[in-house]
């Protein structure tokens, strides 16, 4: 057998990668020192008594070395995850490992801040393992389709990010130094990070390469691997822990950095390598190239003293690659529509529709009344009722009518818009896990609002919602453009939304860090908050959109019923698929954008409300619509009330409360649908 083509490719893989890495290291040092002279750098290394030489040896060089080591670790982790799941979209970031590791580190920093050294790695490892196991379990196991696994990873990452934001808001002093680090940064002050990472990385990589032949056997399939005497589950478990360990060691030192573990393995595979001995080496080399290159790019874009988080840069650069990967594999890894979708679970006996609708209305009224009574200054039910309908207590009437009523009406209508948006997305994607976050609407709207707020400092605040609306429609426009050739395949729409969510989140991170925004204030808005909202937001952004959207959604509901039967059946019944999906996507985006404009980026309402309605009244979207509206409104009103009451006089952003409520429901939904 002629091995010359293989040798030629190997030479190309390693020499080109090594040469490019050297060039990037050179450019990195040029950016740091301001000189192109290698001799000057050598002189700085030899000096010991100057400030310049000290900075060169203890700041510039450790940054490059930690970048190379981190790129190596993340790339190796990505190779392992993609192999054990047989999922081309698997990576530490898409499986929720980064979000889980980051949350546990922040939690540890608030509890035992003086023990964050080695314990930071342990916390990251435990958090990463927990997150990945939850994703695998809820998606249906390691063999789950890429769509199920990616959606599970996305929503679980949102949940962990919400929990992290709660800690950062209420423990701002303890977590003050973690905001930039939490977005991924290679900045080092000495060699301690390198000294910590290097020995652990060597041990983990030794084990990975020792067991690399077993990864080759796993690619043959379960049955064939078992025939060859391989203990498949033991190998998968071992490699899983090694992959999480590689990720945790990086997160504990430089923070979560996405897309390196996704892109580097695919670059190596594109060169024709499949055996893990060469695949791992090539991926590690190109992982280092990608990470150092992203750091160089971030510093070139913003050469000022302000640091662009390298994690945000890798997300912006890596998202287009993810889009290309989705389109390239669109015909091979989605499976059938039933495999790609996540069903609503086992069928149950439906309640009578008038009873359910009346119950939803009464429940909403009860929650709203509780919201009027509850807060830092609580009233009894009798006093609240008296203040509403009599003029005996002017003080109580002021609190209820001027401070609470407008805020609760804003929460009610915003929750209804989010529920309506989620229902439409779930209908066109045929997936009850879809909501505005899945199509990148929430992150796009958040990035658009921040863009207006910080790039146009003197602009009136009334224009901030314009940025949110523009960002939401820009995100959806990009998704529709790339999904056109696939006829808006539900799986393609969902996965493209994940890519756009990464871009929107990265842009928000860059603007927050670049413009020195108060981290707690930014997190509060990005988490979604009804704080300081009232009649003005209700009139400007919510009432008219809701009044217009409800009849339009009612008109589209029968089309959603037909779409639920599958594309072929819908076409046979004369349904105009393209028109129905365009109309539903545009209306859903409009509803979500207006809600974000008023109350910030709130998630889970659009996920939970339609599914609860579906469980109560069945699959008919004509019936789902009004029930989902009341459930969504009551959920956000309840979240606002809890946020105002639990830690009064301090407030928890209602979006974070909604995430705390929605996460257990999401986990139950995933588990229920995977069993069915």
From TrEMBL:
Pfam families found in the cross-reference section: FecCD
Entry's Gene Ontology molecular function annotations: transmembrane transporter activity
UniProt topology in membrane: Multi-pass membrane protein
CDD domains (alphabetical): TM_ABC_iron-siderophores_like
Gene3D superfamilies: ABC transporter involved in vitamin B12 uptake, BtuC
Coiled-coil ranges from the UniProt annotation: none
Top-level taxon: Bacteria
Single Gene Ontology BP annotation: siderophore-iron import into cell
CC per GO annotation: plasma membrane
UniProt keyword annotations, A-Z: Cell membrane, Membrane, Transmembrane, Transmembrane helix, Transport
Family: Belongs to the binding-protein-dependent transport system permease family. FecCD subfamily.
Protein name as annotated: Iron complex transport system permease protein
Annotated organism of origin: Marinococcus luteus
Source species taxonomy: Bacteria, Bacillati, Bacillota, Bacilli, Bacillales
């Amino acid at each position: 057998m002629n091995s010359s083509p293989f040798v030629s490719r190997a030479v190309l893989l390693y020499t080109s990668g090594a040469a490019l890495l050297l060039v990037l290291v050179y450019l990195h040092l040029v950016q740091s020192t301001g000189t192109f002279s290698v001799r000057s750098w050598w002189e700085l290394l030899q000096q010991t008594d100057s400030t310049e030489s000290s900075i060169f040896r203890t700041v510039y060089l450790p940054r490059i070395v930690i970048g190379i080591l981190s790129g190596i670790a993340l790339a190796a982790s990505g190779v392992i995850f993609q192999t054990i799941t047989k999922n081309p979209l698997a990576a530490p970031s898409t499986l929720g490992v980064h979000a889980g590791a980051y949350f546990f580190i922040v939690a540890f920093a608030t509890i035992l801040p003086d023990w964050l050294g080695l314990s930071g790695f342990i916390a990251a490892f435990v958090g990463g393992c927990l997150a990945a196991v939850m994703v695998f379990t809820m998606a249906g196991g390691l063999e789950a389709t890429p769509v199920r696994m990616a959606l599970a990873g996305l929503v679980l990452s949102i949940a962990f990010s919400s929990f992290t934001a709660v800690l950062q808001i209420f423990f701002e002093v303890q977590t003050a130094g973690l905001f930039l680090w939490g977005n991924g940064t290679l900045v080092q002050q000495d060699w301690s990070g390198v000294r910590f990472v290097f020995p652990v990385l060597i041990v983990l990589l030794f084990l990975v390469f020792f067991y690399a032949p077993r990864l080759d056997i796993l690619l043959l399939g379960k049955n064939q691997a078992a025939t060859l005497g391989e203990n498949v589950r033991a190998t998968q478990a071992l490699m899983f822990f090694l992959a999480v360990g590689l990720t945790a060691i990086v997160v504990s030192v430089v923070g979560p950095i996405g897309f390196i573990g996704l892109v580097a393995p695919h670059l190596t595979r594109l060169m024709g390598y499949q055996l893990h001995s060469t695949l791992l080496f090539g991926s590690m080399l190109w992982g280092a190239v990608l990470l150092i290159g992203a750091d160089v790019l971030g510093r070139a874009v913003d050469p000022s003293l302000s640091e662009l988080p390298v994690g945000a840069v890798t997300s912006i650069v890596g998202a287009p690659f993810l889009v290309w990967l989705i389109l390239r594999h669109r015909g091979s890894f989605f499976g059938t529509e039933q495999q790609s979708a996540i069903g609503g679970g086992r069928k149950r006996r439906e309640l009578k529709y008038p009873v359910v609708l009346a119950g939803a209305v009464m429940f909403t009224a009860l929650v709203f009344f509780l919201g009027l009574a509850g807060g830092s200054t609580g009233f009894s039910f009798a006093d609240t009722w008296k203040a509403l309908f009599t003029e005996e207590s002017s003080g109580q009437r002021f609190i209820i009518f001027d401070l609470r009523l407008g805020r609760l009406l804003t929460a009610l209508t915003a929750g209804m818009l989010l529920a309506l948006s989620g229902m439409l997305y779930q209908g066109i994607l045929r997936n009850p896990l879809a909501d505005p976050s899945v199509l990148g609407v929430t992150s796009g709207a958040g990035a658009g609002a921040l863009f207006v707020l910080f790039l146009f400092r003197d602009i009136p605040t009334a224009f901030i919602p314009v940025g949110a609306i523009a960002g939401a429609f820009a995100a959806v426009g990009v998704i529709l453009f790339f999904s056109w050739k696939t006829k808006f395949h539900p799986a393609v729409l969902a996965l493209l939304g994940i890519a756009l969510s990464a871009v929107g989140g990265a842009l928000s991170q860059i603007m927050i860090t670049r413009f020195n925004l108060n981290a707690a204030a930014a997190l509060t808005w990005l988490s979604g908050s009804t704080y300081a909202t009232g009649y003005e937001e209700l009139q400007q952004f919510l009432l008219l959109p809701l009044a217009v959207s409800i009849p339009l959604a009612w008109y589209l509901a029968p089309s959603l019923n037909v779409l639920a039967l599958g594309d072929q059946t819908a076409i046979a019944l004369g349904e105009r698929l393209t028109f129905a999906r365009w109309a539903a996507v545009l209306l859903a985006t409009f509803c979500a954008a207006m809600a974000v404009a008023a109350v910030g980026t709130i998630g889970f309402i659009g996920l939970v409300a339609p599914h609860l309605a579906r469980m109560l009244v069945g699959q008919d979207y004509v019936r789902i619509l009004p029930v989902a509206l009341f459930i969504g409104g009551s959920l956000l009103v309840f979240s606002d009330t809890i946020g105002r009451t639990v830690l009064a006089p301090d407030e928890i952003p209602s979006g974070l409360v909604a995430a705390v409520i929605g996460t257990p429901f999401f986990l139950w939904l995933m588990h229920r649908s995977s069993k069915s």
